[in-house]
Design a protein that fits this description.
Low-confidence stretches: none
Helix content: 40-55%
Strand content: 5-15%
Number of helices: 10
Distance between the termini: 47 Å
Strand order of the largest sheet: 2-1-3-4
Shape: globular
Largest sheet: 4 strands, mixed
Order of helices and strands: EHEHEEHHHHHHHH
Length: 265
């Protein structure tokens, strides 16, 4: 396992929840890394050069050129946020600071909640974002469908954190065991932006406290500001700023969708 002080890793990312969970993990583990911003408003994630790294044309992705422990060269790409988090912990977290010992019960619980986020919270809240903020026409069914499913998933997590609160632990409760793990980071990255999907976290007591605890961590603050300052919450303080941001984002999102439609129709 390589020392975190001797790495050669490039992170390809953008200012999104999916990107933030990876940059937060880098910062929490103290792993040196280089950042290359992918401007998704210009569809750079679909450029041939990036598709060689992630054939799905989505951020985040990494390229790890850290030599192997026996000195051999490495040129390993990893795409999909959940895969990247597992990779970083396996390769560069010898003390299991953000995970647990491989094949322990706790390890597999982390995997469960990480995959749960990847297949549930992220996609459902992402669709809530789309119908609530970006869709060219407001479709009430779509908005309610995905906001409701997001809230249902939040309740699952809130119940879990409530159960965990009975067990104690350092600064917790956390999703698994007695420490913050990549399961917390992955879920936090989306839930921290709940208001953008029109979802209020205040009814979820344990989640609200958990989000505040994670936001207070210095490494999380640094990770949120990659590849550029995290300004979404500030924009939401004014109706004008919020609407201007949503309008600009909607334009390039719909342009990308139209390009995909032409390609695949």
């Amino acid at each position: 396992m390589a020392s975190p002080s001797k790495t050669n890793i490039v992170l390809y990312t953008a200012q999104t929840p999916n990107g933030q969970k990876v940059s937060i993990t880098f910062e929490e583990l103290g792993i040196p890394y280089e950042v290359k911003k992918i401007d998704i408003s210009k569809n750079e994630q679909k450029a041939d050069s990036f598709l060689k790294i992630n054939p799905n044309g989505r951020i985040p992705a990494i390229v790890d050129q850290t030599p192997t422990p026996d000195g051999k060269p490495r040129n390993k790409r990893v795409f999909e946020g959940g895969a990247i988090l597992l990779y970083l912990c396996q390769k560069y977290d010898p003390g299991n600071n953000l995970n647990y010992l491989f094949d322990s019960d706790e390890y597999w619980e982390v995997v469960e909640w990480l995959v749960w986020m990847q297949s549930g919270v992220g996609p459902m809240q992402g669709q809530a974002n789309h119908f609530y903020r970006y869709a060219p026409e407001k479709i009430e069914y779509g908005i309610k469908r995905y906001q409701t499913e997001t809230k249902r998933l939040y309740q699952v997590l809130d119940d879990r954190l409530g159960e965990q609160s009975k067990q104690g632990g350092s600064g917790g409760p956390w999703i698994v065991g007695d420490r913050m793990t990549i399961a917390d980071i992955a879920n936090f990255s989306w839930i921290n932006c709940a208001a953008w999907a029109g979802v209020d976290v205040k009814p979820f007591k344990h989640i609200s406290e958990w989000v505040d605890r994670i936001n207070d961590r210095p490494a999380v603050k640094r990770g949120l500001d990659v590849p550029e300052p995290f300004t979404l919450k500030e924009r939401m303080k004014s109706k004008e700023g919020m609407e201007e941001y949503a309008k600009k984002a909607s334009q390039w999102i719909m342009q990308g969708q139209e390009a995909d439609q032409k390609k695949h129709d």
